[in-house]
Amino acid sequence: MNTDRRRLAIDREQAHHFQTYGRQPLVLDRGEGTRVWDLDGREYLDALAGIAVNVLGHCHPAVTRALQEQAGRLIHVSNLYYTEVQSALVETLTRMAGFERAFLANSGAEAMEGALKLVRRHASEHGHGPKVVGVEGCFHGRTLATLALGADKYMKGFGPAPEGFTRIPRDDLGALDRALGDDTAAFVVEPIQGEGGIHEIDPGFLCEARSLCTERGVLMVFDEIQCGMGRTGHLFAWQAHEVRPDVLVTAKGLGGGVPIGAFLADTAVAEVLHPGDHGTTFGGNPLACAAAQATLDTIEAEDLAARAGRLGEHAHRRLDDFAHDHAQVLEVRGRGLMIGVELRDDADGQAVVGRMRAHGVLANCTAGSVIRLLPPLTIEESDLDRVLDVFFQSLTEVIDHA
User: Fold this and answer.
1) Can 252 be counted among the known catalytic residues?
2) Rounded to an integer, what distance in angstroms lies between the CA atom of residue 95 and that of residue 91?
3) Given a cut of 80, is residue 151 above it in pLDDT?
4) Where in 150-268 does DSSP place strands (E)?
5) Is 223 annotated in the active site?
């Protein structure tokens, strides 16, 4: 019977949904902690966490309880009114992130769009042009503006791209120096690239970029949609190097599984937006805010960011040891529980992910040949070791059968 349910779910999706996702052949039914189960009752360790979303794992009691209580009280009223839960969340988020103001959105792409409007309005009021400079390999979303700022391959067939966006090579300070002028509103970068293959931007480059932006009156924007929310050993990656951006964008893990995003800035930047300049119908609704509040409270109370840093060090030691003896691994990258393992071109990353799934572990392959591991921050060390053991076994099996 469950096989029939699985087939029905897949057939319905293929018949009626836009075919825009390369889905893995699973119909997931429930989750708890670091594990999910499919319709047949098979258990999987989730080392992807909804692409860095489920930072507390699946159905965490604090998030579940907050959703249940809020759903029975108030789900949505729009931003025409105040709600206690939204006011509490922006107070907590700004305190923990180290900024004065936050705007709540529904997703990372929407938060990034809001940040782009903010920096362009700021530029227009301070005598600068609207150009926004990005970095090659960064990914900021799938709206037209965020695609124009990100990689060209995602823009194919959707042009013309919005004007006013340009990119420089990663860590190229000379190119950034040439790009920043009176025509420039902002420099936007992921401190650690996610979709681009888990590449960390050089801390020295970020420090110099900060100085250049300050010197030329250009706002610096960090996209921490994937690398934020405790994943790298700090609540936000910028805190590791103390290179503070003017605008911070976050989403994914912020709601512990519930859609919510935000962009943050200090009042001196945020004050250029006035009533009517930006808005959202659903952004910051009570249900999403309750989930985000529970998520932030749990991360802080259990010091999960520091825990992710320690577990990441453990994982990197094991991965580095494995890479030393296996030429198929070119490089191990990332921080904390944001890990990318780049394979040689002749090692089929998708096949490795398939073998991992067959052994009960969920991961994915990004940037062509990078195995991406983004487990919940709550994962036990023994489960993390299981993920790594399965990766080692799966890569060996793919190589042996090549």
Assistant:
1) yes
2) 6
3) no
4) 165-168, 184-189, 192-193, 199-200, 219-223, 247-250, 261-265
5) yes
Catalytic residue among 46, 99, 103, 139: 139
- For the entire predicted model, the pTM comes to 0.96
Residue % of the chain over a pLDDT of 90: 94
Which of these is catalytic: 223, 246, 348, 383? 223
Contact 36, 44 (CB under 8 A): yes
Alpha helices in 39-83 (DSSP H): 49-52, 61-71
Query: pLDDT tens across 209-243, in order?
Result: 999 999 999 999 999 999 999 999 999 999 998 89
Residue 160 burial class via C-beta count within 10 angstroms: exposed 0-12, middle 13-18, buried 19 and up: exposed
Nearest-10 crossing angle of helices 286-301, 61-71: 150
Q: How far is the C-alpha of 45 from the C-alpha of 31, rounded, in Å?
A: 10
At residue 3, the pLDDT reads 77
Query: Which amino acid type is present at position 87?
Result: S
Q: Which domains does the chain have, with CATH numbers?
A: 2-59+303-400 (3.90.1150.10), 74-301 (3.40.640.10)
Neighbouring-strand partners of residue 339: 334, 373
Convert the pLDDT of each residue in 10-19 to its tens digit. 999 999 999 9
